[in-house]
Every structure is written in C-alpha cells, then in structure tokens.
C-alpha cells in the first residue's frame, strides 16, 4: 500500500481525533446489499483495508463474527488496538496488495477513504482471492466537510482552504476522493465484478462540532501536513489561525473557538461490487 502519510505517530493521533466515524446507516446499507445473495447467518468475516485508527472498522462489528482491520501504518494499528472495545475485532499491520486471509474466507471487504493509495490491480486480485462467492467489495469515502452555523453555510471557507491555500501541496490522490469522489474508470471497472457496480451517495450530519475540532480536521489533511513539512510549523500555524478566524467571523458569534459549535455535513459515496455467486 502506498499510503505513507499517516505513518508518523503525531499525524495518526490527529487523524484519529478529528476524522468522522462512518455512520451506522452506511454499515446497514453494505450489509443489506451483501445479504441479497449471502445468507445473514453466514456472515463470518469482514475485512477493512486501510483501517487507520479503526473508525471504519468498528461499524462492522455488530454484523460479523470476526472483523479484521489492516493498515500499513504501525502507528495507526497501535492507536486502533489501544481503543478497541470489540472482542470480535482484531487489528494488524498489513497492506492492500497482500491481504493476510485465506482464500474464499471473507464475505465483505471495505476500504474507507483509502483505496486511492492502493496498487489497484494487485488489490482487486487479492480481494477476488479472499472473497467468498457472492461476497462484496465496497470502496467508499466522503467529500470535504460542509460546516453550517444555523442557516449559514460555511463550506466555501473549507473549499477555499483546500483548493486555494493548500493548492500546491495537495497530493493528487487526495483530490481523487475529495473532489472526484471515485468517479474515474479505475474505481468503476473491477475485473471480478460481473454485474454493474452499485453507487450510492447520502448526506450525514454530525451535530455540535466545535470550531476548534473543525480546525483540527483541517490540520489532519495530508495536504496541510505536506504544507507544514515544506514551509515550516510557524507558517502552517498561521494558516490554521487564519482559517479559524474566517470560520469564527462567518458565524457572527462571540466566544472561544472551543465553545462555538457547528453542524457538519458529510457527503458519503460508496461503490459496491459483488463476486459472482457461481464463482468456484
């Protein structure tokens, strides 16, 4: 797996603190699609690739006897294991191109906000190998956060921060998920999927997020981390302060950034493809 941006422990900590957990609505959608052709009682094992700190892994725990989360970053796996509260979830260091599971042993493979970093042909071959007949692969992610304060839409400030302030420092892989939402052919032509891929989008609102936490999210972006690496911590801190000031000004509220709360809209998009039930 080519994702090397969250290997540093300090970045892993920021990422896990400020990134959203996928909603149960998403997990239910995946399981509903899976069980159209796989008996619910046979949901033995799911695998989450590029699991990070486990936010995307935990939502699968209620539906499978065993869930494995793999990430190339040891720092992420340490963080995920430390906060793991589920007896049926195990986290391991591993990558997308060599999934440490037996052939035809997994009913669901998921990857959240991560597959843009994979060697996709090798990943697809491994997914085909480990999936049971009728098993499902789901690629999903979320667009840039859209903060709201009452009826005030503040998404233009986030868009400007990402597209303008960080423009020269944002990695192409990041744009694939935030801006393109996995619409290019490499994500829509999965070799082992015979049926047309199912694409869904929905909006999930996370209520009462402080301005401070939104700024924390901005600091977790790989583009910002690259900016910080290139220009130094002092200038990076100034850019974050400017971003916070713009958000605070737009709310037209008085107080500390930790005490001003916003609702954050996340647009989730997912692609689901099924291995042929007749596969041997």
From TrEMBL:
InterPro entries: Diverse_substrate_MTase, Methyltransf_11, SAM-dependent_MTases_sf. One of its GO terms (biological process) is methylation. This is Methyltransferase type 11 domain-containing protein. The keyword Lipoprotein does not apply. It comes from the Eukaryota. The lineage of its organism: Eukaryota, Metazoa, Ecdysozoa, Arthropoda, Hexapoda. Residues 47-138 form the Methyltransferase type domain. Belongs to the methyltransferase superfamily. GO terms for molecular function: S-adenosylmethionine-dependent methyltransferase activity. Pfam families: Methyltransf_11 (PF08241).
């Amino acid at each position: 797996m080519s994702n090397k941006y969250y290997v540093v422990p300090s970045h892993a900590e920021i990422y896990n603190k400020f990134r959203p957990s996928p909603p149960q609505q998403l997990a239910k959608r995946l399981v509903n699609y899976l069980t159209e052709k796989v008996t619910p009682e046979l949901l033995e094992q799911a695998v989450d690739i590029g699991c990070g700190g486990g936010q995307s892994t935990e939502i699968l725990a209620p539906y499978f006897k065993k869930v494995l989360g793999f990430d190339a970053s040891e720092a992420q796996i340490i963080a995920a294991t430390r906060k793991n509260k589920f007896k049926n979830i195990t986290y391991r260091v591993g990558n997308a191109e060599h999934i440490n599971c037996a052939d035809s042993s997994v009913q669901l493979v998921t990857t959240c906000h991560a597959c843009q970093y994979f060697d996709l042909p090798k990943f697809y071959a491994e997914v085909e190998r480990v999936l049971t007949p009728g098993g499902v692969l789901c690629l999903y992610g979320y667009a840039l956060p859209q903060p709201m304060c009452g009826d005030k839409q503040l998404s233009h400030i986030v868009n400007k921060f990402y597209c303008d302030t960080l423009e020269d420092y944002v990695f192409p892989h990041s744009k694939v998920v935030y801006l393109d939402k996995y619409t290019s052919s490499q994500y829509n032509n999965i070799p082992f999927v015979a049926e047309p891929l199912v694409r869904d989008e929905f909006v999930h609102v996370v209520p009462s997020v402080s301005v401070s936490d939104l700024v924390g999210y901005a600091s977790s972006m790989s583009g910002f981390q690259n900016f910080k690496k290139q220009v130094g911590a002092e200038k990076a801190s100034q850019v974050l302060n400017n971003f916070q000031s713009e958000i605070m000004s737009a709310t037209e509220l008085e107080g500390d950034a930790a005490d001003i709360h916003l609702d954050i809209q996340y647009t989730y998009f997912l692609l689901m493809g099924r291995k042929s039930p007749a596969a041997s």
